[in-house]
Amino acid sequence: MSGSDTLARPYAEAVFKRAKETGSTEQWSDMLAFLAAVMKDDRLSRAAVNPKVDRHAFTELLLDICKGHITEEGENLLKLLVANNRLNLAASIKELFEQYRAEDEGYIDVDVKTAFPIGDREQRQLTSALEKTLNKHVRLRTEEDDTLIGGVLIRAGDTVIDGSIRGQLQQLAKRLYSPKIS
Question: Does residue 87 share a domain with residue 41?
Fold first, then answer.
């Protein structure tokens, strides 16, 4: 678990609990995704951690940017994150929230990185195999990554399946360079 996940966890848990209470998990999912996207802007992310930036003016700017995309409760979360200097956790809060939502709704998001595009047929086969292995409904998200050389890298929550050529070469290098224990 990364340090940002540790700091983000209480916020994500509180938001998820509130979303369940009010039946607004989809709405919160959208709001958190929007807030995380806003915080990807380099200028805003730098301003969020700059102690010279006026917190009130910065909060007003963010509220203006988010107008129409977040509810009053979303505004309260934004204000809390700014006040606690935790706005840089927006992406981690979103990711943790989505994990809680997936667990609650009985599915798992699986990220698949491949060196080359995979077709619909292969995606269906992979989804079917992962559903049997993970015993959950799978929502597959695929991405091409030319640094893999070949093969596939699968992340499902805390589970990582590295079937990439790069990963296999790294494992081979570890075995070649590690001392043998007699």
Answer: yes
Q: Enter the tokens of residue 41.
A: 């802007």
Report residue 24 as tokens: 């607004």
Using a pLDDT cut of 90, give the percent of the chain over it: 60
Please indicate, yes or no, whether residues 120 and 148 belong to a single structural domain of this protein: yes
At 11-70, the pLDDT tens digits run 999 999 999 999 999 999 999 999 999 999 999 999 999 999 999 999 999 999 999 999
Domain that holds residue 147: 107-177
As a whole number of angstroms, the distance between CA 14 and CA 93 comes to: 10
Provide the β-strand partners of residue 159. 156
Q: Which CATH number fits the domain that encloses residue 156?
A: 3.40.30
Same domain, 130 and 167: yes
Q: 139, 51, 41, 55: which is closest to 90 by C-alpha?
A: 41
What angle do the packed helices 55-66 and 42-49 form, to 10 degrees?
Answer: 150
pTM of the model: 0.70
Query: What does the pLDDT read at residue 167?
Result: 76
From CA 49, how far away is CA 35, in angstroms rounded?
16
**CA 42 – CA 177 distance, rounded (Å):** 40
